[in-house]
Amino acid sequence: LAILVRTGARDPICPTLQIRAALRSVPAPARVDLVEVAGAGHFSFSTPFPPELTRPDFPPSQDPPGFDRAAYHATLRVELARFFTAALGVAA
């Protein structure tokens, strides 16, 4: 079983160190694709919210200063396609 994990370098809720510790029990560690995303926070992996929901009192819509959620999601789409293509053994 292949596992894709992305953590936020600025995530105080699920720090990368804790994720790495949890992944130690995975029977095939070579099948884990773990990347710590620079500048990302806990909610940065959610898709961008519409403007009417992007506000300071709605934490899931907020990112650490300087992190571009929309730009990261363009990169994430490419990473997901590569991961699933390789994991499922299908041609792109």
Strand content: 5-15%
Rg, Cα atoms, Å: 15 Å
Low-confidence stretches: none
Order of helices and strands: EHEH
Helical percentage = 25-40%
What is the general shape? flat
Determine the number of helices (DSSP H or I, runs of at least 4 residues): 2
User: Overall pLDDT, averaged?
Assistant: 96
Number of strands: 2
Number of domains: 1
Q: Please list the strands of the largest sheet in the order they lie side by side.
A: 1-2
Largest sheet: 2 strands, parallel
Distance between the termini: 20 Å
User: Which class of secondary structure composition applies to the elements?
Assistant: alpha+beta
Task: Name the features.
two-stranded parallel ribbon, alpha+beta, 30% helix, 2 helices, 92 residues, flat
How would you explain this protein's 3D organization?
The protein has 92 residues and is an alpha+beta fold. The protein has one domain (3-88). It contains 2 helices and 2 strands. It has helices at residues 16-23, 69-88; strands spanning 3-8, 32-37. Strands 1-2 form a two-stranded parallel ribbon. Strand 1 (3-8), helix 1 and strand 2 (32-37) form a beta-alpha-beta unit. The longest helix has 20 residues, at 69-88. The protein is flat and about 40 Å long. The protein starts with a strand and ends with a helix.
